[in-house]
Amino acid sequence: MKITGFTSKLLPTADQTKQIFEINRSGVLPLDTTSLQTVLSSVPPELARYDAEIERLLCEREILASHLESCRSALAPVHRLPVELLSDIFELCFPAELYRIDEWTSCQMEIDRVSHRHLLNFAHVCARWYRFTTGTPKLWSTITVDTSLWSGPRLPDNALLFLLECALDRGRDYPLNITVYIECNAHHGDAVLTLLSKHAGRWHQINILSNDQPSRSLSSIKGSLNRLQKVELDTKWKKIDIFEHAPCLTEFTFHGKSKYLPNLPWRQIQTLTCVGDPYTTARPLQSSLALLRSAANVEHFTARLDLRDCNRHSISTSPMVSSKVRHLDLQLAADHPGMVEKLFDSLILPSLTSFTISRFETDPCEWPTTSTSFLLLAKRSGFAHHLLHLSLDTMIPVTELLRCLEVLPALENLTIKDCILDDAAHIVITDTLLRGLTYVAGTTPLAPKLHVLKLESILTFTESIFVELIDSRVKRIRDIEGEQPFRIILSPSWMLDADIGEFRPELVPRLEELESKLEGRLVVELE
After folding, report:
1. Superkingdom of the source (predicted)?
2. CA dihedral defined by 309, 315, 317, 320, rounded to 10 degrees?
């Protein structure tokens, strides 16, 4: 195809341009202005022709550019991706905020997540993506519903139920991960639970939040939960038994009072989390111990206990609980050391390998007045042989901490945090602690097998003592012919209105130099 350019015959020559320049420069009107009048009358139509030609060319260029992009799209690598990889990519594009139940979720966001609008948007891209999104059950396996938002004016309940039913149907027989909040006295809450109950055989994980009575439809699903593995309940449902015959259920999280605890297949529960309500459980310690006693085979136990104000109750001796738990995470708020002592005195943990004690919110977790109760627990349980990981975020005196470490020769991983309390601090990571952990040649150090030390500190210790600790521990590992490097993780704890909590400028290069010098026997991580 021959392309001809558009060029006007009225374009001035070099002589004409020079002549007009001289006229303008002299400021004298020429005697004969005929040629100038001709230009004034003939050029505007010619400029209009240029504008039309430019518009035509721009239009053609846009068409050609669009054609180019279409051809590139036709050859795009995404069309060659296997469906398994495409499914993973689509899952990574899911808006995570839509799957949380919180106060910032709007009515429109509720509509979007019930309908899975993000998937419907993918389906509009092309016929292949439409077939893929609507025909891949895995993509429709996450269901999140907040019925407190169903009373808004945007969409009637029946329409939302229809959208929810469509999402469930598109998931076919794929296992479901469900989070549902049932608002008190909401008529649509019962309808939602009834609809979800029809798919009870697909439940894989379910998180139910409700202060209403359970739907009558739930009673019909007993014995149908053959795939259910994980349950989280924050309800006031009394003694429901629908989970009692769930053969795969191994992980259970419970919020609230023990009187609302459902019947469970306790012997198969391996991961148990208990979150007590602040100031509402008269005996949270006894309730948690009873849970631990019931779950005889639990391996991971997390208890979030508010022990404040419990000193108004009699601190009687609780029955001893012996548990096979391997990982114990105690998140405590306690203003009475006797409650923590009582907790330690009630336990025998012969299989424990990982022990975490921390505080929640900004309340202090009061360590017992002395370390005696911990030492007795360690002796009863045989911590010297099997406790490998210890993490402490609590108000423990340094001398008591060092006494505890003396009875933990198997310890490999130690995490210690300075205790920040609003505008004050209880400093645990001091020069005394660092000296206590430092290895001296010819002696047996505290935690002789230690190879990971994490310190979350306000950084008030002396730099030279800290470096000496690191150097000595690397030598200790070398002396016992350990294959693993010594790993030190240091992160600053921040305090309001304070100048502490920042790395000193000279510390970082010194640690980097030490890490390089020790040739792979030291790993330093600054967070």
Report:
1. Eukaryota
2. 0
Neighbours of 444 (CB within 10 A): 9
- Rounded CA Rg of the chain: 36
Q: What angle do CA 489, 389, 455 make, to 5 degrees?
A: 25
Residue % of the chain over a pLDDT of 70: 87
Q: Which two tokens stand for residue 451?
A: 């190879």
Q: Which two tokens stand for residue 49?
A: 């022709």
231: number of CA atoms within 13 Å, CB side?
26
- The answer as to whether 275 is a domain residue is no
463 has pLDDT over 80 = yes
pTM of the predicted model, to two decimals?
0.78
Structural domain containing residue 98:
83-188+199-210+223-235
What burial letters (b/e) apply to 160-176, b meaning 16+ CB within 10 Å? bbebbeebbebbeeebb
SS3 sequence of 87-152: HHHHHHCCCHHHHCCCCCCCHHHHHHHHHCHHHHHHHCCCHHHHHHHHHCHHHHCEEEEEHHHCCC
Q: Establish if 5 belongs to a structural domain.
A: no
What pLDDT, on the 0 to 100 scale, is given for residue 172?
Answer: 94
Is residue 142 assigned to a domain? yes
The structural domain count of the chain equals 1
Would you give the DSSP letter of residue 514?
A: H
Q: What is the DSSP string of 210-269?
A: ESSPPPGGGGGGTT--SS--EEEEEE---S--TTTT-TT--EEEEES-GGGPPP--GGG-
Determine, yes or no, domain membership for 133.
yes
Is pLDDT of 441 > 70?
yes
184/214 Cα distance (integer angstroms): 10
| 8 Å CB contact between 174 and 137 | yes
Cβ burial, residue 252 (10 Å; 0-12/13-18/19+)? buried
- Report how far apart, in Å, the C-alpha atoms of 108 and of each of 104, 188, 312, 359 are: 11, 17, 48, 37
CA dihedral 31, 33, 35, 41 (to 10 degrees): 180
Q: Give residue 459's region: left, alpha or beta (phi > 0; psi -120 to 50).
A: left
Nearest one of 494, 487, 419 to 454, comparing CA atoms: 487
Contacts 24+ apart (CB under 8 A), 34-40: 39/10
Query: Residues 262-284, buried b or exposed e (16+ Cβ, 10 A)?
Result: bebbbeebbbbbbbbeeeebeeb
Region of 209 on the Ramachandran plot (φ > 0 left; ψ -120 to 50 alpha; else beta): beta
| Average per-residue pLDDT for the chain | 84
The tokens for 474 are 């690397």
Residues 149-207 pLDDT 10s = 887 666 677 888 999 999 999 999 999 999 999 877 667 888 898 999 999 999 999 99
**Angle, CA 355 vertex, CA 389 and CA 446 arms, to 5°:** 50
